[in-house]
Sequence to fold (229 residues):
Amino acid sequence: QVQQVQSGAEVKKPGASVKVSCKASGYTFTSYYMQWVRQAPGQGLEWMGVINLSATYTSYAQKFQGRVTLTRDTSTSTVYMELSSLRSEDTAVYYCAREYSGSGSFDSWGQGTLVTVSS
Amino acid sequence: QSALTQPASVSGSPGQSITISCTGTSSDVGSQNLVSWYQQHPGKVPKVMIYEGSKRPSGVSNRFSGSKSGDTASLTISGLQAEDEADYYCCSYTSSRTYVFGTGTKVTVL
Fold:
């Protein structure tokens, strides 16, 4: 079935980096875009960025420019989100979500990865 | 890019209809028709309910409908049911080739 399975929870210290993976299955990987969205505890959804899975196009929210990097490995159908210079405010659940090219519909979400930033 | 503006909460009795607004600008909601709506129950993953402004994915009840006027999009839930109690978020593509979510609305079924 269509799904994305994300890597497990992480605990990081301020200033460190975290790399979350999102492995896709059940569909043609390169026909989609992969969005990244985060949700801080008790807060709303926040869009972080997108990567085109058939090419190297990426787009990031201005808030995360210079701190976030999205990459993909087509051989394993896996997308990676790396966030650097972590601070306590980055504590959140991070989701990957599939988007069919240009539809604006995030129709399949990973289970989420909790990243906790604490000294 | 500022978050789209949604009411913090909306409530209704079973069977009633409610509407959630999502106000943006001419650079996002008003610029094209790529507004989507997501339902999120506590502790669960978001689920797309409406995309491209008014289209329903397969499996989503026809009690959910979307529309847009100018810089404001709306989600209407008709025949409100207990299972509709959840948080709802709008999301829009922007002229900067990015996306932006709304502030979120908690729907309570009285």
